[in-house]
Amino acid sequence: MTRVFNFSAGPAALPEPVLRQAADEMLDWRGSGMSVMEMSHRGKEYMAIHAEAEALLRELLAVPANYKVLFLQGGAIGQNAFVPMNLLRGRTSADYVDTGEWSKKSIKDAKKYCTVRIAATAEASRYTRVPPQAEWKLDPNAAYVHICANETIGGVEYHWTPDTGAVPLVADMSSNILSREVDVSRYGLIYAGAQKNMGPSGLTVVIVRDDLIGQALPITPSAFDYKQQADNDSMLNTPPTYAIYVAGLVMHWLKAQGGVAAMERHNRAKAALLYDLLDASSFYSSPVAREDRSLMNVPFKLRDEALDGAFLEGAQARGMIQLKGHRSVGGMRASIYNAMPVEGVKALVTYMKEFEAAHA
Ligand code: PMP
After folding, report:
1. What's the Cα-to-Cα distance from 72 to each of 14, 75, 108, 281, 298, rounded to whole Å?
2. Out of 89, 99, 100, 165, which residue is the most buried by the measure of CB atoms under 10 Å away?
3. What distance in angstroms lies between residue 126's CA and the mean position of ligand 1's atoms?
4. Is position 104 annotated as part of the catalytic site?
5. How many Å lie between the centroid of ligand 1 and the Cα of residue 75?
6. What pairing do the DSSP bridges indicate for beta strands 320-321 and 5-6?
7. List 68, 196, 227, 270, catalytic entry
């Protein structure tokens, strides 16, 4: 068996020990005689798996007691609609900060449900920076302020927490949840698709302050009404049971690595290996402003894009895959989530140096 270094933006690499454990437990989960996939979500075995996954997430992110943790389906894109449906609370307008492709998608869907004000945009910089808060024009009557904490495509990440006063801050953390410490109490709501740092696709996590729920628009589907799901421990409908089980294994693994603070140190060290190389080279370049560079998604360009194909082929031959940048930005992108070992980043850096030496 050969495992590649998988730099995919998502679904992404999972920790190998997690995959091995899931394989070991595939046919018979801990003497139950069943795979987790075959369990009733109302049975005692699955209920324990579910409760443990929630407890681990609460522990790893130090989620305060007045926040609900929901395990839903529908992806982060689904949340682009479910957030306004649930959080407008009688208001008609919400503020959005536009930092790139994923913010734009959030804005587009939110416009179906409310007036969207763009409180700030990074468009003028071609989405290579996070607009500093001094540039934001916030509306005190907004229902909430929405940000994308890490733009997976553009590689732009917030390294600070916006201050939105009494207006709840909502963050799409799909591509950086559990990669670094966050003060959950500064947010009204955090959501994330699981398929980058948490587990397989199919699970969407919502962490929401409990005073914000219970006033969903009447059109809100019950499966996506946060209050109804909170009252039913995310079991108003069948939750994505297998994805939740694997997410629990991933969180156990993360805890064994020392938790989120230790993972953040590790992630900073990994990202620095790549950014240091990009900054030292005139052959490669990073488009993103230094202070806003993502620790998770590192886009970069070759000086001569005619070499892109050869670069990707050479990487593939060395067992490094999924380095092609998103079609909207071109170039390369290395996604280096929690499960990417430092050895993978070192192998990439070594290859990049060799490629530069051969083609510069
Ligand atoms: N937001 C961000 C920041 C993402 O990276 C993604 C997925 N790449 C999404 C939203 C969409 O997530 P999903 O496909 O789970 O709906």
Report:
1. 20, 8, 22, 44, 29
2. 99
3. 20
4. no
5. 7
6. parallel
7. 196
Query: Tell me: the pLDDT tens digits for 72-119?
Result: 999 999 999 999 999 999 999 999 999 999 999 999 999 999 999 999
Whether 253 sits among the annotated catalytic residues: the reply is no
220: amino acid identity, one letter: T
Ligand 1 proximal residues by C-beta, below 6 Å: 10, 75-77, 102, 148, 152, 172, 174-175, 193
Res 7 pLDDT > 90: yes
Residue limits of CATH 3.90.1150.10 in the chain: 258-359
Residue range 17-256, CATH number: 3.40.640.10
Q: What angle do CA 77, 202, 13 make, to 5 degrees?
A: 100
- Pick 258-359's CATH classification: 2.60.40.1180, 3.40.50.2300, 1.20.950.20, 3.90.1150.10: 3.90.1150.10
Q: Whose CA is nearest to atom 15 of ligand 1?
A: 75
